[in-house]
Amino acid sequence: MRGRHMSILTIQPSGKTVETREGASLLELIMEAGEAIMHKCGGNAQCGSCHIFVQAGRKSVSRIGAEENARLDTIVGVGSKSRLACQAKVTGEEDITVELLGFASGL
Ligand code: FES
Q1: Domains in the chain with CATH codes
Q2: pLDDT in tens, 15-62
Q3: How far does the signal peptide extend, from start to end residue (predicted)?
Q4: Residue 75 Cβ < 6 Å to ligand 1
Q5: Does residue 80 carry a pLDDT above 90?
């Protein structure tokens, strides 16, 4: 058992929640919560279908890497909160809120 508290991930628009784990990707956690999220390339930053918005708790999420950045550049509707769920990993203990975009994600 872990000696410290991990945060809660809240998934909008459904409002489902799941406990985070350090090092887990947001994609993994979203799927564990029972949400449908596209991940056509299997989590390799190649497809962009797992595009989400991180609405809160960005300090608890890993920084955007070069590959993710390059992929995000190709997606329509990207904003300052955009992440690829497969590339964003939990790094901190602050609660996180994400918004799923589904078919509005520009693909
Ligand atoms: S699953 Fe393909 S970019 Fe995330």
Answers
A1: 8-101 (3.10.20.30)
A2: 999 999 999 999 999 999 999 999 999 999 999 999 999 999 999 999
A3: none
A4: no
A5: yes
Tokens of 69: 């950045």
Q: Are 93 and 52 in contact (CB under 8 A)?
A: no
Cβ of 57 less than 6 Å from ligand 1: no
Residue 12 pairs in a beta bridge with 99
Task: Indicate whether residue 47 lines ligand 1 (CB < 6 A).
Answer: yes
Ligand 1 in contact with 26 (CB < 6 A)?
no
Residue 102: predicted pLDDT: 67
> What is the atom index within ligand 1 of the atom nearest the CA of 41?
2
pLDDT at 101: 87
